[in-house]
Amino acid sequence: MPESAVASTDAGVEATYKSRDVEGFLDVHFYRKLGFALALFFARVKTTPTAVTFLGAAVGVLAGHLYFYRNLAINVVGMVLHVFANALDNADGQLARITQQGSREGRTVDGLCDAIVFASVYLHLSLRYVAGGGSAWIGLLAFAAAFSHSLQSAVADYYRHGYLFFVQGKSGSELDSTDALRKVSDQLNWRRQPWKKFLARFYLNYTGEQEFLAPQQARLFAEINARGGVIPAWFSEEYRLRNRRMTKWFNIMTVNTRMLFLFVLLFLGKPTWYFFVDLTLLNFVLVFVLVRQNRMSGDLLGEMESRSS
Fold first, then answer.
1. Percent composition of the chain: helix, strand, coil (DSSP 3-state, to 5)
2. Could you count the other beta carbons within 10 Å of the beta carbon of residue 306?
3. Directed axis angle between helix 215-226 and helix 194-213, to 10°?
4. Which stretches does DSSP call E strand in 61-217?
5. What three-state secondary structure class fits 142?
């Protein structure tokens, strides 16, 4: 391939990044490139981002089912499908940016489908354990792990988008508030618009969970909005300096790390040990991030208020 074509392709992939600061290693060097190629294909065949999201969910659910079997060859097929599902999960967002079809509703569907994929994983790992003679009480462990997963993903997503908002401004972020989302939800009717109403309520509850776990960042966001959405240059730079290294901790709680642990444990024949990864290691990271970020956001909020007085 000519160097000019390579440079053009790299520039195209770069344009679909949220920001290199918040992109993980595998995202930059694998998933974003594969996702971009898929996005270009889907753009050519005029497939919508939402259709790609549903396709990725279907592939991911099938991958979760293949983890049920105590056969490594079948499990490897599941891993390959899981990787492809994750690539499709990247591709839908890149396609939305390429075709300018991004929307809050699309992001909500994407988040819902991500949850469905991992629900399939938790369910089939539990059934595998029971089918092998294990106790049905594994279901409680799986539920606790899934609940932890929900909290970890919500916090990672909130802080990643917080970084994009405070450093790059509104155009680079998908950060929302419950106040704004409640107004959107209240305008929808369950009888006339059941699907849109469901998505609005789902996203409202999700954002409420994020604000509950990260109250100081929620206050920072509200303060910026109260000032007309204008982010002072000093604040943006200070936020970037204090958080750039923390993005690596946010990424530990995202899907790439989970898949690596899951794949290793599948090869070892101990896939249900993955539940303990959620409950121990990733919860430790969650607590560390919450304590550190809430303290940092509180400090920045106080500095903003003192500069305004």
1. 80, 0, 20
2. 8
3. 110
4. none
5. helix
Nearest to 269 by CA among 74, 59, 61: 74
Between CA 293 and CA 217 the distance in angstroms is 8
Q: Are 31 and 86 in contact (CB under 8 A)?
A: yes
Closest CA to 152 of 278, 26, 23: 278
Burial bucket for residue 116 (CB in 10 Å: 0-12, 13-18, 19+): middle
Structure tokens at 123: 């369910």
- The set of residues, in sequence order, having a beta carbon less than 8 Å from that of 50 and lying 6+ positions away, is 92, 106, 109
Q: How many CA atoms lie within 13 A of 82 on its CB side?
A: 24
pTM of the model: 0.89
Q: pLDDT for 205-240, tens place per residue?
A: 999 999 999 999 999 998 888 888 888 889 999 999
Distance CA 96, CA 84 (A): 18
Evaluate whether 110 touches 93 at the Cβ level (below 8 Å). yes
Q: How many whole angstroms separate alpha carbon 45 and alpha carbon 47?
A: 6
Calpha distance 22→14 (Å, rounded)? 13
What does the pLDDT look like over 54-109, one tens digit per residue? 999 999 999 999 999 999 999 999 999 999 999 999 999 899 888 888 778 888 89
- Rounded distance between C-alpha atoms, residue 215 and residue 210, angstroms: 8
What is the number of other CB atoms lying within 10 angstroms of the CB of residue 48? 15
CB burial class (10 A; 0-12, 13-18, 19+) of residue 171? exposed
